[in-house]
Amino acid sequence: MKKMKKLLAAVLAVMVVTAGVAVAGTLDEIAKRGKLRVGMEPAYMPFELTNQKGEIIGFDVDMAKRMAKAMGVELELVSTAWDGIIPALLTDKFDVIMSGMTLTQERNMSINFASPYIEIGQTVLVSNKIAGEVKSYKDLNDPKYTVASKLGTTGEQATKRLIPNAKYISFETEQEGVMEVVNGKIDAFVYDKPYNVVAVGQRGEGKVTHLEEPFTFEPLAWGIRKGDPDFLNWLNNFMYQVKNDGTYDKIYQKWFQDDAWLKEIQ
Q1: 26 phi/psi in degrees, rounded to 5
Q2: Can you tell me whether residue 230 is helix, strand or coil?
Q3: What is the pLDDT of residues 91-146, one digit of tens each?
Q4: Gyration radius (Cα) of the chain, Å
Q5: pTM for this prediction
C-alpha cells in the first residue's frame, strides 16, 4: 500500500509539472521576454520585402506590428530562408511564421495554423512570344513549353500536378523566375497571384502576359508549433478583432490596392 501511495504521488507530481509546462506556453514566453519574434522570408511582394534602406516591409509586417502592439511587447523580425522556415519554427528560432504561407495538409502535419487571413491562388506569367497560343494554364501542358516556379512552394506543386507534361525547372527566388520570362528564356512562370500582379507592373510591363484567373485555391495562414491552444486561441481572436474594427482593411488597402509602397523598393 505504501508503494502504491508513493507511485500515485509520483504520478500526480508529473501531472502537475506537465500541466505547468502546458500553461507556460508561447504567450507566457513572449510576455516574459517582452518581445514577439516573427519568422519570414522577405522576398514575397507585397507580403514581405526589403526596401532600399534594408528594412523589411509589407502586409505581414504591418500585421505583425499590430499584433505586437496588442500584446504590449516589442517586435523582432527574423529573416529566414523559405526552405528552412518550418524547421526554424520547430527549433524555437521564433514564435510564429508570418510569411504568406499557404495552409496545406502536408504542412499541417508538422505545425498548426491559425484561421486563414487571405485567400489566393496560382496564376501564370507567360512570355509574349507565346501569348497568342496560350490562353490558359492547360495550354502549357505540353513538352515543348518550359514552365518554372519557386523551389519548395505551392506554385511548384501546382505546376507538377496540373501541368505535368511541360518541362519544369525551379528557381531559388521569385525574381529569378520572373526575369527569365521577361527575358524570353523560359515560356511561363507559375506563382501566387498577388506577387505576379506586382511583378508585371514592376518588371514585365509589355513583356509578359498575365493569365490572372487563379487555377488553385490557397488560404494563407500563420503557422505555430503544435500543442499550444492558448496561442492559437489568441491569434484567432486577434484576427477576428482586426477584421471587424477596420484595421485589416486599412492594411490591405495599403498593400493590395495602392502602389505607393513601390517607390520604397525602386
Answers
A1: -60, -40
A2: helix
A3: 999 999 999 999 999 999 999 999 999 999 999 999 999 999 999 999 999 999 99
A4: 22
A5: 0.80
